[in-house]
Amino acid sequence: MAFGLLKFGLRRTYRARGILPPRPALKSSYDVVIIGAGGHGLAAAHHLAKDHGITEVAVLDKGYLAGGNTARNTAIVRSNYLTPEGVRFYDEAMQLWRGLSHELGLNLMLSNRGHLTLAHSDAALRTMRWRAEVNKHQGVDSELIDPGEIRKLCPQLDLSDEARWPILGALYHPPGATARHDAVAWGYAHEASRRGVEIHEHTEVTGFRREGSRVTAVETDRGTIHCGRVLQAVAGNSTRVGDMVGLRMPIRTVPLQACVSVPIMPVIDPIIVSGSLHTYIWQTARGELVMGGSADPYPGYTTRSTLDFKEGLMAHAMELFPFLGEVRLNRQWAGMTDMTPDFSPIMGKTPLDNYYIDAGWGTWGFKATPVCGKRMAETVANDRAPEIIHAFDMGRFARFDQVGERGAASVGH
User: Fold this and answer.
1) pLDDT band at 413 (very low <50, low <70, confident <90, very high)
2) Residue 117's CB: how many other CB atoms inside 10 A?
3) CATH node for 112-174+253-339
4) What is residue 251's three-state secondary structure?
5) Count of H helices and E strands in the chain?
6) How far from the centroid of its chain's Cα atoms is residue 83's Cα?
7) Do residues 115 and 176 make contact, with C-beta atoms less than 8 angstroms apart?
8) Where are the alpha helices (DSSP H) in 154-223?
9) Percentages of the chain per state (helix, strand, coil), in multiples of 5
């Protein structure tokens, strides 16, 4: 081993091993076309090839791989939701997350650190108690804890009675974790391409061809692709692509901003969330403080950041952690969130015979990546949605059978 290492070190040139093969020529037809090369689209492609043996798959993206919301989220993973349907779904995601580094052969830097949702009022305490009971009934580890127990987990929080927003308790979710978002996307992309899936970056969908209620081809700026089935997984652009194919969705797209500080010494271990203050914060292994807040109050498709957001977020962050007043920010960014009326996703079949949808994720799309990829691949392969996503079908809005998850949002919307 020592001789091999010496030989490697003395080389003049090094042959880099690429994660993905060069972009292939676009074929005239595929069994499945996936629109969107983010985490969800790539995970679905991986499971189509791995679990169902469907490798004639093209993943299309108008930008670069995972350059949309997958690159712009704040990488929090949890399952402490409010409705039984939501808790079951995200609990399956948590189970898949635990073995995902091994499955993809790439260190995703999954870090279990616990998740604290703070309560600043009696009403918030009742909601936390409600969520804890729902979680426990579904086998998810969550409990309501008092300020004394919060102090043991995060002594840096301002738990004094003089605080402007006193902390009365918190929903503690020990499995709460973070992961490396770009590693997740690249891991799925590598495994999918290794099994024969083609990933076409910088390939914009410009339209569709239909025969009745069936999509026969996808039109792109590189040519027309005939297809057997189509999966749409484009996050904030869901309504735009849906309009092209004649599919109207109850989705409102709004920008969501976040920021990160310069690295400092490790001071915060758990993920801290305050829905009342529209603030969440956690610290990376490198020492940066990742912070986010509420979505912008108006719809839009831009990913620009604003001074107003930064000023409001910093004020609330310092109410929780006064010592952060001297910490400098490093950068700020924004993504596009596709919000549904009930704050739950839209998954499964659509009124079109061979067109499937993965949309409406709002602020919790990243954490659902493994389960969404697995279950949407199953839906596409079998032309039938599995039971675990039945509650998220598009028809629920016409039936007035919504899955209200607003109370489990980490921040206000």
Assistant:
1) very low
2) 27
3) 3.30.9.10
4) coil
5) 11, 19
6) 19
7) yes
8) 181-194
9) 35, 25, 40
The 3-state DSSP class for residue 105 equals coil
Enter the tokens of residue 89.
């779904």
Q: Point out which residues pair with 169 in neighbouring strands.
A: 119
DSSP 181: H
In sequence order, which ranges of 222-350 are alpha helices (DSSP H)? 238-245, 307-320
Rounded to whole angstroms, the Cα distance separating 31 from 64 reads 23
**What pTM does this model have?**
0.93
- How many Å apart are CA 31 and CA 231, to the nearest integer? 11
In angstroms, rounded to a whole number, what is the distance separating the alpha carbons of residues 256 and 299? 10
Residue 272: CA count within 13 A, CB half-sphere: 28
Which residues on adjacent β-strands are paired with residue 329? 261
Q: Give me the amino acid identity at 60.
A: L
pLDDT tens-place string over residues 280-292: 999 999 999 999 9
DSSP assignment, residue 56? -
336 Cβ contact list (under 8 Å, min separation 6): 68, 69, 235, 236, 237, 253, 254, 255, 256, 300, 301, 303
Calpha distance 270→276 (Å, rounded): 18
Q: Whose CA is closest to 43, among 59, 22, 64, 31?
A: 59
CA distance 180 to 185: 9
Residues 233-260 have pLDDT tens digits of 999 999 999 999 999 999 999 999 999 9
Distances (CA, A) of 400 to 236, 248, 332: 24, 17, 38
Q: Are 32 and 55 in contact (CB under 8 A)?
A: no
Encode burial over 6-31: b for 16+ CB neighbours within 10 A, e otherwise. eeeeeeeeeeeeeeeeeeeebeeebe
Architecture of domain 24-73+182-250+342-408: 3-Layer(bba) Sandwich (3.50)
Contacts of 177 (CB under 8 A, 6+ apart): 76, 77, 78, 97, 110, 111, 112, 113, 115
- Whole-angstrom Cα distance, residue 255 to residue 336? 5
Model confidence at 16, in pLDDT bands (50, 70, 90)? low
List C-alpha distances in Å: 323 to 293, 318, 354, 359. Answer: 19, 7, 55, 39
Distances (CA, A) of 385 to 5, 65, 122, 147: 51, 27, 40, 43
Question: Cβ atoms within 10 A of the Cβ of 214, count?
Answer: 12
Check: CB of residue 22 under 8 Å from CB of residue 216.
Answer: no
- What are the extents of the domains in the chain? 24-73+182-250+342-408, 112-174+253-339
Contact assessment for residue 213 and residue 202, using Cβ atoms and an 8 Å cutoff:
no
